[in-house]
């Protein structure tokens, strides 16, 4: 049970703080990677074959990952550069291009690629000309529509966003860009007017370079951070008019954070998040889900309104249910009912590519229970609701029996008015949506043995 009991909704900060303290995990895919097991090339090839054979195969989203050492740290200082970074990047790039050939041959060429994305940190490790070579290689193995029809996304960090560099990235083919405010030497030393000028300059320069979508990533819950400082940061971001603003909770497990006297507690973080949400919504930004706010004209908002918003291992996307294909060390793929991940260790990934083999090492095939829970999480995190009648019809279950355990766990949220039944389904109130991970966690595990064996299955229709 969620105990102690949640405060009534007339104390939203206390209620949000309670939920934030119970939040954990990104909930980007279900089942999560911690449940992956040995999964080889045979299983991966079969998953692609079945996906190709669908009457209307899903479109493709391609993602490139990098070794952990080179990933952006949204909640702390970037990793120091090494003198041999250039040589390592060249060797990694050459293997990525070979992996594209090994994997790309599996997919039918009539499957459009609607999104290509680089892992945060990749733009700091590689030069634009190197990534342009990588993108060119995609066209030899995948069907890439014209640039205006494909989202090509990247993330840059402070110190790597001057006008010349941004223009080079746009020339390489990128049209969507994120800027990680917290990934700076010295942490969040830039504040006030200095930070406001920086954000405005970055957004203006991105627009001038030709990027059609600009996102700012703002950290909160950083050690030593005060509410008024974070609120000023959000206000400065709003004045810069990006298309999307992400609020990254740096006190969440797994986030890299800067050294300091300690993270703000749940009440402080709840104040930060709620005040930020107020500012953003007044300025015309819509809470898409979890930590993402987008301007009312953004593609994510349009997709959400038309029930096409989709969340995968890379986050939110406006293109509906796509197959995600990952390249690089530890990259994740989601193809049909299959989740797969490449070797976690760089040396193992390199060895697989060098012997001409695909690097898939772990994964799983979703079973019936996995599919039910994945559908629930999609509804919760993308639409802020669970469409119970549709779930029952699609999966032939009695929802309240199947999820008796999670519903019992969530009773305090219903009692507090944070969740409610409407039109036969469950809707999250504003506070619950801001901390939706706490709600998602209740549905993110198999049914307890006490009721798993008694789940009645209904006949179709």
Write the layout of secondary structure elements.
Layout: H1 12-22, E1 37-38, H2 41-52, E2 60-64, H3 85-104, E3 113-118, H4 122-125, H5 128-138, E4 151-156, H6 163-172, E5 176-180, H7 192-209, E6 213-220, H8 227-240, E7 244-249, H9 266-282, E8 285-289, E9 292-295, H10 299-305, E10 310-312, E11 315-317, E12 323-327, E13 332-335, E14 338-342, H11 346-354, E15 360-365, H12 368-383, E16 385-386, H13 388-395, H14 399-402, H15 404-409, H16 411-415, E17 419-422, E18 425-428, H17 430-434, H18 436-443, H19 449-452
Parallel strand pairs: 2-3, 2-12, 3-4, 4-5, 5-6, 6-7
Antiparallel strand pairs: 1-15, 7-9, 8-9, 10-11, 13-14, 14-15, 16-18, 17-18
Give a quick summary of the entry.
The protein has helices at about 10-20, 40-50, 85-105, 120-125, 130-140, 165-170, 190-210, 225-240, 265-280, 300-305, 345-355, 370-385, 390-395, 400, 405-410, 410-415, 430-435, 435-445, 450, and strands spanning about 35-40, 60-65, 115-120, 150-155, 175-180, 215-220, 245-250, 285-290, 290-295, 310, 315, 325, 330-335, 340, 360-365, 385, 420, 425-430. The protein is α/β, with parallel strands linked by helices.
Overview of this structure, please?
- With 461 residues, this protein is of the alpha/beta class.
- The protein folds into two domains: 32-327, TIM Barrel, CATH 3.20.20; 369-452, Arc Repressor Mutant, subunit A, CATH 1.10.10.920.
- 41% of the residues lie in helices and 18% in strands.
- It contains 19 helices and 18 strands.
- It has helices spanning 12-22, 41-52, 85-104, 122-125, 128-138, 163-172, 192-209, 227-240, 266-282, 299-305, 346-354, 368-383, 388-395, 399-402, 404-409, 411-415, 430-434, 436-443, 449-452, and strands spanning 37-38, 60-64, 113-118, 151-156, 176-180, 213-220, 244-249, 285-289, 292-295, 310-312, 315-317, 323-327, 332-335, 338-342, 360-365, 385-386, 419-422, 425-428.
- It has a nine-stranded mixed β-sheet, with helices on both faces.
- Strand 17 and strand 18 (425-428) form a beta hairpin.
- Helix 1 (12-22) crosses helix 9 and helix 12 runs antiparallel to helix 18 (436-443).
- The longest helix is centred in the first third of the chain and has 20 residues, at 85-104.
- The protein is globular.
- The chain starts with 11 loop residues before the first helix and ends in a 9-residue tail after the last helix.
- The relative contact order is 0.16.
- The model is unreliable at 256-260 and 447-461 (pLDDT under 50).
